[in-house]
Amino acid sequence: MTEQPSIYELADKWISLDRDLVTKKQIEALKEAKDTDALERLLRVPIKFGTAGLRAKMEAGFSRMNCVTVIQASQGLSLFVKDNVPNAESRGVVIGHDHRYNSEIFAQLSAAVFLYYGYTVYYLGGLSMTPLVPFAVKYKSAACGIMITASHNPKDDNGYKVYYENGAQIIPPIDSGIASYIEKNQEIVIWGSESYKTHANVVDIKDQLIDAYFENAKSLILDSKLTNAGKLKYVYTAMHGVGAPFCNKMLETLNMDPFIPVAEQISPDPNFSTVSFPNPEEKGALDMAIKTANQEGATIIIASDPDADRFAAAEKQQDGTWNIFSGDQLGTLLAYFTLLLAKSKDIPVNRLAMVNSTVSSQMLKSMAAKEGFFYKDTLTGFKWMSNELLKLQEKEGLVPCFAYEEALGYLVSPNVLDKDGVTALGCFVQLAVYINSKGFTIKSFLDSLYDKYGYFLTDNYYYICNDTKKINKIFDNIRYGTGSSPSDFDAIPRTNFFCVETGKTLRYPLEIGGSPVTYIRDLTVGFEVHQLDTLISSVNNPQINVSSGQYVPDLLVSASSQMITFETANRGRITLRTSGTEPKIKYYIEISGDNSDKDAVKQNLENLVAAVGSEVMEARKNQLL
Prior knowledge:
38% of the residues lie in helices and 20% in strands. By secondary structure, it is of the alpha/beta class. The chain has three domains: 45-204, Alpha-D-Glucose-1,6-Bisphosphate, subunit A, domain 3 (Alpha-D-Glucose-1,6-Bisphosphate, Chain A, domain 3, 3-Layer(aba) Sandwich), CATH 3.40.120; 208-453, Alpha-D-Glucose-1,6-Bisphosphate, subunit A, domain 3 (Alpha-D-Glucose-1,6-Bisphosphate, Chain A, domain 3, 3-Layer(aba) Sandwich), CATH 3.40.120; 459-616, no CATH class. Strand 17 and strand 18 (504-506) form a beta hairpin. Belongs to the phosphohexose mutase family.
Protein backbone atom coordinates (compact mmCIF):
# COMPACT_ATOMS: atom_id res chain seq x y z
CA MET A 1 0.00 0.00 0.00
CA THR A 2 1.45 3.38 -1.06
CA GLU A 3 2.11 5.71 1.84
CA GLN A 4 0.15 8.95 1.66
CA PRO A 5 2.16 12.18 1.40
CA SER A 6 2.07 14.48 4.40
CA ILE A 7 -0.11 17.55 4.16
CA TYR A 8 3.00 19.73 4.00
CA GLU A 9 4.31 17.70 1.07
CA LEU A 10 1.01 18.32 -0.70
CA ALA A 11 1.30 22.01 0.13
CA ASP A 12 4.80 22.12 -1.36
CA LYS A 13 3.58 20.34 -4.48
CA TRP A 14 0.80 22.89 -4.87
CA ILE A 15 3.17 25.82 -4.40
CA SER A 16 5.48 24.39 -7.07
CA LEU A 17 2.61 24.12 -9.57
CA ASP A 18 0.66 27.30 -8.95
CA ARG A 19 1.47 30.53 -10.81
CA ASP A 20 -1.62 32.37 -9.67
CA LEU A 21 -0.33 34.66 -6.91
CA VAL A 22 -3.66 34.79 -5.07
CA THR A 23 -4.17 31.04 -4.65
CA LYS A 24 -0.45 30.37 -4.24
CA LYS A 25 -0.26 32.84 -1.34
CA GLN A 26 -3.35 31.27 0.22
CA ILE A 27 -1.59 27.90 0.56
CA GLU A 28 1.71 29.51 1.59
CA ALA A 29 -0.05 31.43 4.39
CA LEU A 30 -1.87 28.31 5.62
CA LYS A 31 1.39 26.36 5.58
CA GLU A 32 3.17 29.07 7.53
CA ALA A 33 0.33 29.20 10.05
CA LYS A 34 0.45 25.38 10.28
CA ASP A 35 -3.31 25.26 9.71
CA THR A 36 -3.40 21.58 8.88
CA ASP A 37 -7.21 21.35 9.03
CA ALA A 38 -7.61 23.95 6.29
CA LEU A 39 -4.80 22.43 4.24
CA GLU A 40 -6.41 19.00 4.49
CA ARG A 41 -9.75 20.37 3.27
CA LEU A 42 -8.16 22.12 0.30
CA LEU A 43 -5.45 19.68 -0.74
CA ARG A 44 -6.02 16.09 0.38
CA VAL A 45 -8.92 14.92 -1.79
CA PRO A 46 -8.66 16.03 -5.45
CA ILE A 47 -11.71 17.52 -7.11
CA LYS A 48 -13.54 14.65 -8.80
CA PHE A 49 -14.12 14.71 -12.54
CA GLY A 50 -17.46 13.12 -13.40
CA THR A 51 -20.31 13.21 -15.88
CA ALA A 52 -20.94 16.85 -14.91
CA GLY A 53 -17.25 17.68 -15.41
CA LEU A 54 -16.05 19.78 -12.48
CA ARG A 55 -17.89 22.10 -10.11
CA ALA A 56 -16.70 23.51 -6.79
CA LYS A 57 -15.92 26.62 -4.80
CA MET A 58 -13.21 28.87 -6.25
CA GLU A 59 -10.14 28.91 -4.04
CA ALA A 60 -6.72 27.30 -3.75
CA GLY A 61 -6.18 23.56 -3.55
CA PHE A 62 -6.56 20.31 -5.47
CA SER A 63 -10.18 19.98 -4.24
CA ARG A 64 -11.33 23.35 -5.59
CA MET A 65 -11.87 25.23 -8.85
CA ASN A 66 -8.79 27.26 -9.71
CA CYS A 67 -6.24 27.76 -12.47
CA VAL A 68 -4.25 24.64 -11.55
CA THR A 69 -7.20 22.24 -11.51
CA VAL A 70 -8.61 23.75 -14.71
CA ILE A 71 -5.28 23.30 -16.52
CA GLN A 72 -4.95 19.74 -15.24
CA ALA A 73 -8.49 18.94 -16.37
CA SER A 74 -7.79 20.41 -19.81
CA GLN A 75 -4.58 18.40 -20.14
CA GLY A 76 -6.33 15.13 -19.31
CA LEU A 77 -9.35 15.92 -21.48
CA SER A 78 -7.33 16.96 -24.53
CA LEU A 79 -5.14 13.84 -24.39
CA PHE A 80 -8.11 11.51 -23.81
CA VAL A 81 -10.04 12.99 -26.73
CA LYS A 82 -6.95 12.83 -28.95
CA ASP A 83 -6.65 9.10 -28.22
CA ASN A 84 -10.36 8.30 -28.58
CA VAL A 85 -11.95 10.64 -31.14
CA PRO A 86 -10.86 10.34 -34.80
CA ASN A 87 -9.16 13.47 -36.18
CA ALA A 88 -9.67 15.20 -32.86
CA GLU A 89 -7.04 17.91 -33.36
CA SER A 90 -8.37 19.08 -36.73
CA ARG A 91 -12.02 18.79 -35.67
CA GLY A 92 -11.18 20.96 -32.71
CA VAL A 93 -12.65 22.00 -29.37
CA VAL A 94 -15.33 24.61 -28.65
CA ILE A 95 -14.67 26.74 -25.54
CA GLY A 96 -17.10 29.23 -24.02
CA HIS A 97 -17.55 30.97 -20.67
CA ASP A 98 -20.12 32.93 -18.69
CA HIS A 99 -19.76 36.04 -16.51
CA ARG A 100 -18.70 34.49 -13.22
CA TYR A 101 -15.50 35.48 -11.48
CA ASN A 102 -12.54 33.70 -13.13
CA SER A 103 -14.67 32.23 -15.94
CA GLU A 104 -12.75 34.09 -18.63
CA ILE A 105 -9.29 33.20 -17.33
CA PHE A 106 -10.32 29.55 -16.91
CA ALA A 107 -11.50 29.52 -20.53
CA GLN A 108 -8.28 31.13 -21.74
CA LEU A 109 -6.09 28.66 -19.85
CA SER A 110 -8.15 25.77 -21.27
CA ALA A 111 -7.64 27.15 -24.78
CA ALA A 112 -3.88 27.40 -24.21
CA VAL A 113 -3.68 23.71 -23.26
CA PHE A 114 -5.63 22.53 -26.32
CA LEU A 115 -3.50 24.76 -28.57
CA TYR A 116 -0.37 23.26 -27.00
CA TYR A 117 -1.58 19.79 -28.03
CA GLY A 118 -2.27 20.88 -31.61
CA TYR A 119 -6.04 21.38 -31.59
CA THR A 120 -8.08 23.83 -33.58
CA VAL A 121 -9.80 25.98 -30.95
CA TYR A 122 -13.19 27.56 -31.56
CA TYR A 123 -12.90 30.15 -28.82
CA LEU A 124 -16.18 31.93 -28.14
CA GLY A 125 -14.84 35.31 -27.07
CA GLY A 126 -17.02 37.40 -24.78
CA LEU A 127 -19.88 36.07 -22.68
CA SER A 128 -21.72 32.97 -23.89
CA MET A 129 -24.77 31.11 -22.72
CA THR A 130 -24.31 27.40 -22.02
CA PRO A 131 -26.61 26.11 -24.85
CA LEU A 132 -24.35 27.75 -27.44
CA VAL A 133 -21.52 25.28 -26.72
CA PRO A 134 -23.40 21.99 -27.40
CA PHE A 135 -24.96 23.64 -30.45
CA ALA A 136 -21.48 24.62 -31.66
CA VAL A 137 -20.09 21.11 -31.14
CA LYS A 138 -22.77 19.70 -33.45
CA TYR A 139 -22.62 22.63 -35.88
CA LYS A 140 -18.83 22.33 -36.38
CA SER A 141 -18.59 18.54 -35.82
CA ALA A 142 -16.03 19.35 -33.14
CA ALA A 143 -14.29 16.67 -31.10
CA CYS A 144 -15.51 18.10 -27.81
CA GLY A 145 -16.70 21.25 -26.07
CA ILE A 146 -16.08 23.02 -22.78
CA MET A 147 -18.30 25.55 -21.03
CA ILE A 148 -16.96 27.38 -18.00
CA THR A 149 -19.98 27.95 -15.77
CA ALA A 150 -21.51 26.95 -12.46
CA SER A 151 -25.00 27.61 -13.80
CA HIS A 152 -27.22 28.64 -10.84
CA ASN A 153 -24.75 27.88 -8.03
CA PRO A 154 -23.71 30.55 -5.49
CA LYS A 155 -21.32 33.27 -6.64
CA ASP A 156 -18.20 31.66 -5.13
CA ASP A 157 -18.56 28.52 -7.27
CA ASN A 158 -17.48 27.78 -10.80
CA GLY A 159 -17.50 24.76 -13.08
CA TYR A 160 -16.05 23.03 -16.14
CA LYS A 161 -18.77 21.39 -18.22
CA VAL A 162 -17.77 18.94 -20.97
CA TYR A 163 -19.54 17.87 -24.16
CA TYR A 164 -18.38 14.95 -26.29
CA GLU A 165 -18.21 14.71 -30.07
CA ASN A 166 -21.94 13.92 -30.38
CA GLY A 167 -22.83 17.26 -28.79
CA ALA A 168 -24.16 15.72 -25.57
CA GLN A 169 -22.65 15.71 -22.09
CA ILE A 170 -20.31 12.86 -21.32
CA ILE A 171 -21.56 9.62 -19.73
CA PRO A 172 -19.75 6.56 -18.32
CA PRO A 173 -17.27 5.16 -19.12
CA ILE A 174 -16.04 8.31 -20.87
CA ASP A 175 -16.03 10.27 -17.60
CA SER A 176 -13.81 7.75 -15.80
CA GLY A 177 -11.55 7.57 -18.85
CA ILE A 178 -11.04 11.33 -18.79
CA ALA A 179 -10.54 11.24 -15.01
CA SER A 180 -7.75 8.67 -15.38
CA TYR A 181 -6.00 10.84 -17.98
CA ILE A 182 -6.26 13.86 -15.68
CA GLU A 183 -4.73 11.86 -12.84
CA LYS A 184 -1.79 10.84 -15.08
CA ASN A 185 -1.11 14.37 -16.33
CA GLN A 186 -0.77 16.53 -13.23
CA GLU A 187 2.40 18.43 -14.13
CA ILE A 188 1.60 21.74 -15.81
CA VAL A 189 2.70 21.72 -19.48
CA ILE A 190 1.71 25.31 -20.28
CA TRP A 191 0.40 28.29 -18.36
CA GLY A 192 -0.78 31.00 -20.71
CA SER A 193 -3.82 33.17 -21.16
CA GLU A 194 -2.94 35.24 -24.21
CA SER A 195 -2.37 32.65 -26.96
CA TYR A 196 -6.07 32.50 -27.83
CA LYS A 197 -5.70 36.03 -29.28
CA THR A 198 -2.94 35.37 -31.81
CA HIS A 199 -2.48 31.62 -32.34
CA ALA A 200 -3.02 30.42 -35.91
CA ASN A 201 -5.21 27.52 -34.69
CA VAL A 202 -7.77 29.80 -33.04
CA VAL A 203 -10.91 30.25 -35.15
CA ASP A 204 -13.44 32.95 -34.33
CA ILE A 205 -16.93 31.63 -35.13
CA LYS A 206 -18.97 33.51 -32.51
CA ASP A 207 -21.02 35.71 -34.86
CA GLN A 208 -21.47 32.92 -37.41
CA LEU A 209 -22.48 30.57 -34.63
CA ILE A 210 -25.10 32.90 -33.16
CA ASP A 211 -26.59 33.46 -36.62
CA ALA A 212 -26.77 29.69 -37.15
CA TYR A 213 -28.34 29.14 -33.72
CA PHE A 214 -31.17 31.56 -34.44
CA GLU A 215 -31.60 30.29 -37.99
CA ASN A 216 -32.11 26.84 -36.45
CA ALA A 217 -34.66 28.36 -34.06
CA LYS A 218 -36.90 29.26 -37.02
CA SER A 219 -37.78 25.56 -37.20
CA LEU A 220 -39.63 26.13 -33.91
CA ILE A 221 -42.08 28.65 -35.38
CA LEU A 222 -45.52 27.20 -34.75
CA ASP A 223 -47.40 29.44 -37.17
CA SER A 224 -45.84 32.22 -39.23
CA LYS A 225 -49.15 34.13 -38.98
CA LEU A 226 -49.20 33.92 -35.18
CA THR A 227 -48.46 37.33 -33.65
CA ASN A 228 -48.93 38.78 -30.22
CA ALA A 229 -49.61 42.36 -31.36
CA GLY A 230 -49.50 43.65 -27.80
CA LYS A 231 -52.23 41.36 -26.47
CA LEU A 232 -49.98 39.75 -23.85
CA LYS A 233 -47.36 41.58 -21.82
CA TYR A 234 -44.53 39.58 -20.34
CA VAL A 235 -41.71 40.50 -17.98
CA TYR A 236 -38.31 38.81 -18.21
CA THR A 237 -35.51 38.38 -15.68
CA ALA A 238 -32.02 37.17 -16.53
CA MET A 239 -31.19 36.48 -12.85
CA HIS A 240 -28.08 38.65 -13.26
CA GLY A 241 -26.88 36.28 -15.97
CA VAL A 242 -26.05 36.26 -19.68
CA GLY A 243 -29.48 35.41 -21.08
CA ALA A 244 -31.00 38.82 -21.95
CA PRO A 245 -29.57 39.44 -25.45
CA PHE A 246 -30.17 35.82 -26.49
CA CYS A 247 -33.77 35.76 -25.20
CA ASN A 248 -34.51 39.10 -26.84
CA LYS A 249 -33.18 37.82 -30.17
CA MET A 250 -35.16 34.58 -29.78
CA LEU A 251 -38.47 36.43 -29.41
CA GLU A 252 -37.61 38.56 -32.42
CA THR A 253 -36.76 35.45 -34.46
CA LEU A 254 -40.09 33.82 -33.57
CA ASN A 255 -42.09 36.97 -34.43
CA MET A 256 -43.05 37.61 -30.81
CA ASP A 257 -43.18 40.97 -29.03
CA PRO A 258 -40.11 42.01 -27.00
CA PHE A 259 -40.11 41.43 -23.24
CA ILE A 260 -40.27 44.01 -20.46
CA PRO A 261 -37.01 43.64 -18.50
CA VAL A 262 -36.51 43.45 -14.75
CA ALA A 263 -34.01 46.29 -14.93
CA GLU A 264 -32.18 45.45 -11.70
CA GLN A 265 -31.48 41.87 -12.85
CA ILE A 266 -31.03 42.21 -16.61
CA SER A 267 -27.25 42.74 -16.80
CA PRO A 268 -24.57 40.15 -15.98
CA ASP A 269 -23.46 40.51 -12.36
CA PRO A 270 -21.10 37.92 -10.83
CA ASN A 271 -22.21 38.99 -7.34
CA PHE A 272 -25.89 38.19 -8.08
CA SER A 273 -26.60 41.23 -5.94
CA THR A 274 -30.41 41.09 -5.66
CA VAL A 275 -30.90 37.34 -5.09
CA SER A 276 -29.63 35.21 -2.24
CA PHE A 277 -29.39 32.21 -4.54
CA PRO A 278 -29.52 32.70 -8.36
CA ASN A 279 -31.77 29.74 -9.05
CA PRO A 280 -35.32 30.26 -10.38
CA GLU A 281 -36.36 27.08 -8.52
CA GLU A 282 -35.74 28.73 -5.16
CA LYS A 283 -38.62 30.30 -3.26
CA GLY A 284 -38.60 34.07 -3.67
CA ALA A 285 -36.37 34.05 -6.75
CA LEU A 286 -39.09 35.66 -8.90
CA ASP A 287 -40.15 38.28 -6.33
CA MET A 288 -38.53 41.19 -8.17
CA ALA A 289 -40.01 40.02 -11.47
CA ILE A 290 -43.45 39.89 -9.85
CA LYS A 291 -43.01 43.44 -8.57
CA THR A 292 -42.03 44.66 -12.04
CA ALA A 293 -44.91 42.79 -13.70
CA ASN A 294 -47.43 44.32 -11.30
CA GLN A 295 -46.06 47.77 -12.02
CA GLU A 296 -46.13 47.24 -15.78
CA GLY A 297 -49.53 45.54 -15.97
CA ALA A 298 -47.97 42.33 -17.33
CA THR A 299 -49.63 38.96 -16.75
CA ILE A 300 -46.73 36.62 -17.57
CA ILE A 301 -43.23 36.28 -16.15
CA ILE A 302 -40.50 34.46 -18.03
CA ALA A 303 -37.04 33.79 -16.61
CA SER A 304 -33.76 32.09 -17.33
CA ASP A 305 -31.06 31.15 -14.87
CA PRO A 306 -27.61 32.84 -15.00
CA ASP A 307 -26.15 30.70 -17.83
CA ALA A 308 -29.53 30.59 -19.64
CA ASP A 309 -29.91 26.83 -19.78
CA ARG A 310 -32.98 26.71 -17.48
CA PHE A 311 -36.35 28.34 -17.92
CA ALA A 312 -39.06 29.37 -15.46
CA ALA A 313 -42.47 31.04 -15.86
CA ALA A 314 -45.39 32.39 -13.87
CA GLU A 315 -48.85 33.79 -14.67
CA LYS A 316 -51.02 36.33 -12.85
CA GLN A 317 -54.43 35.02 -11.83
CA GLN A 318 -57.73 36.87 -11.77
CA ASP A 319 -57.52 37.36 -8.01
CA GLY A 320 -54.15 39.12 -8.38
CA THR A 321 -52.02 36.25 -7.10
CA TRP A 322 -49.22 34.73 -9.16
CA ASN A 323 -49.10 31.07 -10.14
CA ILE A 324 -45.49 29.95 -10.51
CA PHE A 325 -45.49 26.89 -12.74
CA SER A 326 -43.55 23.87 -11.56
CA GLY A 327 -40.87 22.30 -13.73
CA ASP A 328 -43.21 19.39 -14.45
CA GLN A 329 -46.09 21.67 -15.43
CA LEU A 330 -43.84 23.56 -17.85
CA GLY A 331 -42.62 20.21 -19.17
CA THR A 332 -46.20 19.16 -19.89
CA LEU A 333 -46.99 22.47 -21.63
CA LEU A 334 -43.82 22.38 -23.75
CA ALA A 335 -44.43 18.73 -24.65
CA TYR A 336 -47.87 19.71 -25.90
CA PHE A 337 -46.30 22.58 -27.87
CA THR A 338 -43.96 20.02 -29.44
CA LEU A 339 -46.97 17.93 -30.47
CA LEU A 340 -48.61 20.97 -32.05
CA LEU A 341 -45.37 21.84 -33.84
CA ALA A 342 -44.93 18.30 -35.22
CA LYS A 343 -48.51 18.23 -36.47
CA SER A 344 -48.05 21.62 -38.15
CA LYS A 345 -45.10 20.11 -40.04
CA ASP A 346 -47.00 16.89 -40.88
CA ILE A 347 -44.59 14.72 -38.88
CA PRO A 348 -46.41 11.49 -37.84
CA VAL A 349 -46.89 11.43 -34.09
CA ASN A 350 -45.75 7.80 -33.86
CA ARG A 351 -42.31 8.87 -35.12
CA LEU A 352 -41.76 11.32 -32.26
CA ALA A 353 -39.53 10.46 -29.31
CA MET A 354 -39.88 12.25 -25.99
CA VAL A 355 -38.06 11.48 -22.76
CA ASN A 356 -37.85 12.81 -19.23
CA SER A 357 -35.87 11.97 -16.14
CA THR A 358 -37.18 9.32 -13.79
CA VAL A 359 -37.71 11.92 -11.03
CA SER A 360 -39.94 13.98 -13.32
CA SER A 361 -43.71 13.65 -13.69
CA GLN A 362 -45.28 10.55 -15.18
CA MET A 363 -47.78 12.80 -16.97
CA LEU A 364 -45.56 12.71 -20.07
CA LYS A 365 -45.92 8.92 -20.04
CA SER A 366 -49.70 9.30 -19.82
CA MET A 367 -49.64 11.78 -22.70
CA ALA A 368 -47.60 9.33 -24.80
CA ALA A 369 -50.13 6.55 -24.16
CA LYS A 370 -52.98 8.78 -25.35
CA GLU A 371 -51.23 10.48 -28.29
CA GLY A 372 -49.06 7.64 -29.61
CA PHE A 373 -45.53 9.04 -29.45
CA PHE A 374 -42.60 7.05 -28.02
CA TYR A 375 -41.78 7.75 -24.39
CA LYS A 376 -39.00 6.66 -22.09
CA ASP A 377 -37.65 7.81 -18.75
CA THR A 378 -33.95 7.93 -17.96
CA LEU A 379 -31.62 8.61 -15.09
CA THR A 380 -31.51 12.18 -13.81
CA GLY A 381 -29.62 14.63 -16.00
CA PHE A 382 -29.56 15.72 -19.61
CA LYS A 383 -26.49 13.63 -20.27
CA TRP A 384 -28.77 10.59 -20.06
CA MET A 385 -31.76 12.08 -21.85
CA SER A 386 -29.73 13.51 -24.73
CA ASN A 387 -27.83 10.28 -25.31
CA GLU A 388 -31.09 8.31 -25.13
CA LEU A 389 -32.65 10.55 -27.79
CA LEU A 390 -29.62 9.99 -30.02
CA LYS A 391 -29.92 6.24 -29.52
CA LEU A 392 -33.61 6.29 -30.42
CA GLN A 393 -32.83 8.31 -33.54
CA GLU A 394 -29.98 6.05 -34.67
CA LYS A 395 -31.49 2.65 -33.81
CA GLU A 396 -35.24 3.23 -34.14
CA GLY A 397 -35.38 6.02 -36.73
CA LEU A 398 -37.42 8.20 -34.37
CA VAL A 399 -37.44 12.01 -34.37
CA PRO A 400 -35.78 13.25 -31.15
CA CYS A 401 -38.03 16.21 -30.43
CA PHE A 402 -38.30 16.80 -26.68
CA ALA A 403 -36.77 16.07 -23.28
CA TYR A 404 -37.20 17.62 -19.87
CA GLU A 405 -36.38 17.30 -16.20
CA GLU A 406 -38.41 18.77 -13.37
CA ALA A 407 -35.54 21.07 -12.36
CA LEU A 408 -36.63 23.56 -15.07
CA GLY A 409 -34.56 22.03 -17.87
CA TYR A 410 -36.02 21.63 -21.39
CA LEU A 411 -34.68 20.40 -24.73
CA VAL A 412 -36.88 21.43 -27.66
CA SER A 413 -34.39 21.25 -30.55
CA PRO A 414 -32.32 18.15 -31.42
CA ASN A 415 -29.54 20.50 -32.54
CA VAL A 416 -28.99 21.56 -28.92
CA LEU A 417 -28.49 18.31 -27.02
CA ASP A 418 -28.77 19.85 -23.58
CA LYS A 419 -31.26 21.94 -21.67
CA ASP A 420 -31.77 25.28 -23.38
CA GLY A 421 -33.62 28.02 -21.55
CA VAL A 422 -33.66 30.33 -24.56
CA THR A 423 -35.47 28.07 -27.03
CA ALA A 424 -37.76 26.91 -24.20
CA LEU A 425 -38.64 30.55 -23.49
CA GLY A 426 -39.42 31.17 -27.16
CA CYS A 427 -41.66 28.10 -27.41
CA PHE A 428 -43.48 28.95 -24.17
CA VAL A 429 -44.24 32.50 -25.31
CA GLN A 430 -45.56 31.18 -28.63
CA LEU A 431 -47.79 28.71 -26.76
CA ALA A 432 -49.04 31.47 -24.46
CA VAL A 433 -49.95 33.65 -27.45
CA TYR A 434 -51.55 30.69 -29.25
CA ILE A 435 -53.77 29.64 -26.34
CA ASN A 436 -54.61 33.28 -25.57
CA SER A 437 -55.97 33.51 -29.10
CA LYS A 438 -58.20 30.51 -28.24
CA GLY A 439 -59.54 32.22 -25.12
CA PHE A 440 -57.46 30.31 -22.55
CA THR A 441 -55.09 31.43 -19.85
CA ILE A 442 -52.04 29.23 -19.42
CA LYS A 443 -53.37 27.79 -16.18
CA SER A 444 -56.84 27.07 -17.62
CA PHE A 445 -55.21 25.43 -20.64
CA LEU A 446 -53.12 23.26 -18.31
CA ASP A 447 -56.37 22.26 -16.58
CA SER A 448 -57.73 21.12 -19.94
CA LEU A 449 -54.65 18.91 -20.34
CA TYR A 450 -55.35 17.41 -16.90
CA ASP A 451 -58.84 16.55 -18.13
CA LYS A 452 -57.31 14.78 -21.09
CA TYR A 453 -54.29 13.02 -19.57
CA GLY A 454 -55.05 12.83 -15.85
CA TYR A 455 -54.31 15.10 -12.91
CA PHE A 456 -50.71 14.85 -11.68
CA LEU A 457 -49.65 16.75 -8.58
CA THR A 458 -46.05 16.87 -7.35
CA ASP A 459 -44.07 18.04 -4.34
CA ASN A 460 -40.33 18.18 -4.95
CA TYR A 461 -37.88 19.58 -2.42
CA TYR A 462 -34.94 18.53 -0.28
CA TYR A 463 -33.50 18.01 3.18
CA ILE A 464 -30.10 19.45 4.04
CA CYS A 465 -27.61 17.11 5.69
CA ASN A 466 -23.87 17.76 5.81
CA ASP A 467 -23.07 14.39 7.38
CA THR A 468 -22.40 11.78 4.66
CA LYS A 469 -22.36 8.95 7.21
CA LYS A 470 -25.79 9.98 8.45
CA ILE A 471 -27.14 10.10 4.89
CA ASN A 472 -25.86 6.60 4.21
CA LYS A 473 -27.32 5.37 7.50
CA ILE A 474 -30.72 6.79 6.57
CA PHE A 475 -30.69 4.98 3.24
CA ASP A 476 -29.43 1.78 4.86
CA ASN A 477 -32.37 1.89 7.24
CA ILE A 478 -34.76 2.28 4.30
CA ARG A 479 -33.06 -0.54 2.41
CA TYR A 480 -32.12 -2.99 5.17
CA GLY A 481 -34.23 -1.95 8.16
CA THR A 482 -31.08 -1.41 10.20
CA GLY A 483 -32.37 1.32 12.52
CA SER A 484 -30.90 0.84 15.98
CA SER A 485 -33.69 2.56 17.93
CA PRO A 486 -37.47 2.16 17.82
CA SER A 487 -39.22 4.43 15.33
CA ASP A 488 -42.38 4.65 13.27
CA PHE A 489 -40.53 3.20 10.31
CA ASP A 490 -39.15 0.23 12.27
CA ALA A 491 -42.73 -0.85 13.02
CA ILE A 492 -43.79 -0.89 9.37
CA PRO A 493 -43.95 -4.34 7.69
CA ARG A 494 -41.07 -4.90 5.32
CA THR A 495 -39.99 -7.07 2.40
CA ASN A 496 -37.82 -10.11 2.93
CA PHE A 497 -35.66 -10.44 -0.20
CA PHE A 498 -32.46 -12.35 0.59
CA CYS A 499 -29.70 -11.43 -1.87
CA VAL A 500 -27.58 -14.54 -2.47
CA GLU A 501 -24.53 -12.63 -3.79
CA THR A 502 -24.26 -10.11 -0.93
CA GLY A 503 -25.68 -12.21 1.89
CA LYS A 504 -27.92 -9.28 2.87
CA THR A 505 -31.68 -9.18 3.20
CA LEU A 506 -33.42 -6.28 1.48
CA ARG A 507 -36.10 -5.09 3.89
CA TYR A 508 -37.90 -2.25 2.12
CA PRO A 509 -41.20 -0.94 3.54
CA LEU A 510 -44.35 -2.70 2.39
CA GLU A 511 -46.43 0.41 2.95
CA ILE A 512 -45.90 4.17 3.12
CA GLY A 513 -48.49 6.49 4.60
CA GLY A 514 -50.82 3.53 5.02
CA SER A 515 -50.81 2.68 1.29
CA PRO A 516 -49.26 -0.62 0.07
CA VAL A 517 -46.01 -0.34 -1.88
CA THR A 518 -46.46 -1.78 -5.38
CA TYR A 519 -43.05 -1.09 -6.95
CA ILE A 520 -39.45 -0.61 -5.81
CA ARG A 521 -36.35 0.35 -7.77
CA ASP A 522 -33.04 0.80 -5.97
CA LEU A 523 -30.32 2.09 -8.30
CA THR A 524 -27.68 1.95 -5.57
CA VAL A 525 -27.73 -1.82 -5.04
CA GLY A 526 -29.34 -2.75 -8.37
CA PHE A 527 -32.78 -4.06 -7.41
CA GLU A 528 -36.18 -3.61 -9.08
CA VAL A 529 -39.49 -5.35 -8.46
CA HIS A 530 -42.86 -4.75 -10.12
CA GLN A 531 -46.28 -5.65 -8.71
CA LEU A 532 -44.78 -6.08 -5.27
CA ASP A 533 -48.14 -6.23 -3.49
CA THR A 534 -49.29 -9.12 -5.71
CA LEU A 535 -45.97 -10.95 -5.29
CA ILE A 536 -45.96 -10.60 -1.51
CA SER A 537 -49.59 -11.71 -1.09
CA SER A 538 -49.03 -14.76 -3.31
CA VAL A 539 -46.24 -16.07 -1.11
CA ASN A 540 -47.46 -14.58 2.19
CA ASN A 541 -44.15 -12.71 2.47
CA PRO A 542 -41.69 -15.45 3.42
CA GLN A 543 -38.02 -15.00 2.51
CA ILE A 544 -37.54 -14.69 -1.26
CA ASN A 545 -34.07 -15.56 -2.51
CA VAL A 546 -32.66 -13.21 -5.14
CA SER A 547 -29.79 -14.42 -7.31
CA SER A 548 -27.89 -12.80 -10.18
CA GLY A 549 -30.13 -11.70 -13.05
CA GLN A 550 -33.32 -11.50 -11.01
CA TYR A 551 -35.03 -8.19 -10.32
CA VAL A 552 -32.38 -6.18 -12.20
CA PRO A 553 -33.17 -2.54 -13.18
CA ASP A 554 -32.96 -1.34 -16.79
CA LEU A 555 -31.29 1.89 -15.70
CA LEU A 556 -27.62 2.17 -14.77
CA VAL A 557 -26.75 1.15 -11.21
CA SER A 558 -24.25 3.25 -9.26
CA ALA A 559 -23.09 2.21 -5.81
CA SER A 560 -21.50 5.65 -5.31
CA SER A 561 -24.85 7.47 -5.10
CA GLN A 562 -28.13 6.86 -3.32
CA MET A 563 -31.38 6.56 -5.27
CA ILE A 564 -34.56 4.63 -4.41
CA THR A 565 -38.00 4.84 -6.04
CA PHE A 566 -41.29 3.56 -4.59
CA GLU A 567 -44.77 3.43 -6.09
CA THR A 568 -47.86 3.00 -3.92
CA ALA A 569 -51.31 1.60 -4.51
CA ASN A 570 -52.93 5.04 -4.25
CA ARG A 571 -51.06 6.08 -7.45
CA GLY A 572 -48.19 7.63 -5.58
CA ARG A 573 -44.58 7.75 -6.74
CA ILE A 574 -41.64 8.64 -4.48
CA THR A 575 -37.99 9.01 -5.41
CA LEU A 576 -35.29 9.74 -2.85
CA ARG A 577 -31.78 10.55 -3.99
CA THR A 578 -28.63 12.31 -2.95
CA SER A 579 -27.30 15.32 -4.84
CA GLY A 580 -24.01 15.00 -6.70
CA THR A 581 -22.97 18.60 -6.00
CA GLU A 582 -24.73 19.68 -2.78
CA PRO A 583 -25.28 18.32 0.77
CA LYS A 584 -28.90 17.45 0.08
CA ILE A 585 -31.26 14.50 0.17
CA LYS A 586 -33.75 15.32 -2.57
CA TYR A 587 -37.27 13.97 -2.66
CA TYR A 588 -39.68 13.83 -5.59
CA ILE A 589 -43.23 12.87 -4.70
CA GLU A 590 -46.15 12.63 -7.11
CA ILE A 591 -49.79 11.56 -6.88
CA SER A 592 -52.09 11.21 -9.86
CA GLY A 593 -55.83 10.90 -10.13
CA ASP A 594 -58.90 12.20 -11.88
CA ASN A 595 -59.02 15.93 -12.63
CA SER A 596 -62.59 16.07 -11.30
CA ASP A 597 -61.33 15.08 -7.84
CA LYS A 598 -58.41 17.45 -7.30
CA ASP A 599 -59.06 17.84 -3.59
CA ALA A 600 -58.61 14.10 -2.99
CA VAL A 601 -55.40 14.05 -5.02
CA LYS A 602 -54.09 17.05 -3.06
CA GLN A 603 -54.94 15.40 0.27
CA ASN A 604 -53.27 12.14 -0.78
CA LEU A 605 -50.15 14.08 -1.77
CA GLU A 606 -50.02 15.93 1.55
CA ASN A 607 -50.36 12.64 3.41
CA LEU A 608 -47.63 11.01 1.35
CA VAL A 609 -45.23 13.94 1.82
CA ALA A 610 -45.82 13.84 5.57
CA ALA A 611 -45.29 10.07 5.66
CA VAL A 612 -42.02 10.30 3.74
CA GLY A 613 -40.77 12.89 6.23
CA SER A 614 -41.87 11.10 9.39
CA GLU A 615 -41.77 7.40 8.46
CA VAL A 616 -39.13 7.06 5.75
CA MET A 617 -36.64 9.90 6.30
CA GLU A 618 -37.35 10.18 10.04
CA ALA A 619 -36.51 13.85 9.61
CA ARG A 620 -37.07 14.89 13.23
CA LYS A 621 -35.02 12.06 14.71
CA ASN A 622 -32.24 12.59 12.18
CA GLN A 623 -32.34 16.38 12.66
CA LEU A 624 -32.73 17.04 8.95
CA LEU A 625 -33.33 20.64 7.89
